[in-house]
Structure prediction request, 511 residues.
Amino acid sequence: MADIWFRGFEDRSQMVPRFAKVNGVRIAYRVQGDGPPLVLLMGYRLNSAAWPPTFIKQLARRFTVITLDNRGTGLSDKPVKGYAIANMARDVCGLLDELKIAHVHMLGYSMGGAIAQEFVRQFPDRVLSLILCATTAGGSRAKYATSSVVAVMRDLDGLSPEQAARRIWKVTYPPGYLEQHPDLAEAQMRREVALPTPLHAADLQFQAFAEFDGSKALANIRCPTLVLTGDLDELIPPQNALMMAKVIPAAELVVIPGCGHRVLWEATPRCIDLITEFLDSARGASVAMPHAEGNHEHAPAASDALTSAINLLATWPFSLARASFESMALAQQLMMVGSASRFGDGKPIILVPRFLGSDLALFPLSIWLKALGYRPVTTGLSLNLQQSSSEGSLSQVIKSTAQRIGRKAVLITHAFSMRRALRTADLHKQWISDVVIIGAAYRFETEGVRTHVVSAWSALHALTELLRVLRSIDLQLIQTSDLQSLESRFFAGSGQTIDVENLAGSEDGDG
Prediction:
């Protein structure tokens, strides 16, 4: 019986990477074991090598385990577009089509849980059962991490892969775990950073996960569902699991005490038992669709919160330059609430002085943009564009910022200073992709650098239009050979050269 699941694979016992060209990108995947197909979807920043080895080994005794590197991670392509959760679900669908698998059991961890929810929404007939681990449905009913936890996960530019991993595990493992299991945590970290995720891909995954809202589709899930979490999860609080289990028809809920966000790593044997028991019971089971009810309350959308927050900020007078830091902290809190539906992609933004009449006025704007998911940099109180010597200082800020983040920066300036800003952009096209001019009467053209004009007839209009413009600007990477070198060394490891094309599993698998 097991062979009917995966005809065509000569050796299903090896975790050898294969490749498939699906949905416009090359996706790396691995197949191990025998039995009904079980797809495992990994979370934010991590690739398929991050799954606990024992977890994979034990599940492969009962199932054909399929793991993949989400776009942007591991050995998969790392484009600058296509990271929306809905599109990553189509990546998975394309892979299953390539493998000629019609129906699967599916487990999604963290961001992978969002991909799994979106997959079952788009392709409900292909999912035999669903396991949602340490994840959220997003939307207005979701419980989000605190701003300090988000900052730990988000502010990673300038860090090495190892430094970033050590920073992140402080909020993904529960208190005391690192002290009690230093060797396990260290070995896990080494597996994860062997092929590090580039910052732009991590930012785009973060943006996609922050914007995900699958809450309205939960009630339509009709396959058997297990919702699993740890009670000490700081990153995705367990209240999310409780909400999902309550809304998904006949869903099972398991909360493992003493575990944090990495519950699969912290309690691997327990999770294996729970998952295999659930999958055994789920075979052939189905869930009746609930009758629609007309008494659901309409919850405000996250976009409504964003509009309200923008309105509040816009009503603040330009005397924000004199506001206290407590007021700026309040602005950050309001923006965090409103940013869930339209989160930024982490692009670097250089705020040029005189934008709002004084350097100090840049700070509230900087906080606002950072809370919305961008990386704003102010050029300093001493920089005055009316002095020619300041151009060198501005150039240094632009270059260092672009190099640190690994992509071209966007320059935001006021019409008052646009000529010198445009001249600086023209001299540094390798570091600047776009210039946004606030309050200009017409657009100036600069060869090799795109320009955008935002009307300043009202503060509300300017802020709203600024967000629209920033969303329309695609990322432009500063090319580096470091990642390609790492991937090349991966294939040359152990003194053996792996024939990538033969591993592809399809004619166009090598992309």
In short: Residues 390-405 form the longest helix (16 residues). Confidence is low (pLDDT under 50) at residues 1-14, 288-341, 381-389, 493-511.
